[in-house]
Design goal:
Elements lengths: L5 E4 L5 H14 L8 H4 L4 H10 L1 E7 L2 E10 L8 E9 L8 H14 L4 E7 L3 H9 L3 E12 L2 E11 L3
Parallel strand pairs: 4-5
Antiparallel strand pairs: 1-2, 2-3, 3-4, 5-7, 6-7
Helix pairs in contact: 1-3
Length: about 170
């Protein structure tokens, strides 16, 4: 079932909602994100505001409430500016299975196509649903970083994935 959720770019004034959903994501799924709840909960509000101005963060809103996010940035080094990165994809559990993740991915890809030649992302190897979603849109695994994340005393490998746009 396709969702009618609104997808839009979050702006600086959305920082409180961005902060709330970002902290929720990393607290509930510490093995899926590079940031830790313990560190990010201590960040000042200005840090979340700056995050919305340095990156493009797309938000999925259902009845005006932010229920999902996906970030995009272009690598800053001159030799890497043909590459973008999809990061911090998260959708609240009660909104999964409604096509919202597809809408977020499609929005990021459409935006990235106008900015870069290829789009990268990483995904922990123990998240088959996310891997399948990215592969559905043409992302291919080109490597696996062993022990990429350490949460408490557990290590998590991450697949490196890329989607190359036709030029």
């Amino acid at each position: 079932m396709k969702s009618s959720t609104e997808i839009r770019t979050l702006v600086k004034d959305d920082w409180a909602d961005w902060k709330r959903i970002r902290l929720e994501a990393i607290k509930l799924h510490p093995d899926a994100f590079g940031g830790s709840y313990e560190d990010e909960v201590q960040n000042p509000d200005e840090s979340f505001q700056q995050g919305l101005t340095k990156n493009t963060i797309f938000g999925a809103l259902s009845n005006g409430v932010l229920v999902g996010v996906a970030g995009f940035f272009i690598f800053s080094h001159r030799k890497m500016q043909h590459r973008g990165n999809l990061f911090s994809m998260y959708l609240r559990k009660e909104h999964r299975g409604q096509g919202i993740a597809d809408q977020l991915i499609e929005t990021v890809i459409a935006h990235a196509k106008s900015e870069v030649l290829q789009l990268h992302c990483t995904v922990v190897t123990n998240n088959p649903a996310a891997i399948k979603l990215y592969q559905k849109y043409g992302f291919e695994i080109y490597g696996t970083e062993p022990r990429s994340l350490k949460v408490d005393n557990s290590y998590y490998d991450e697949h490196l994935m890329a989607l190359t746009f036709d030029t």
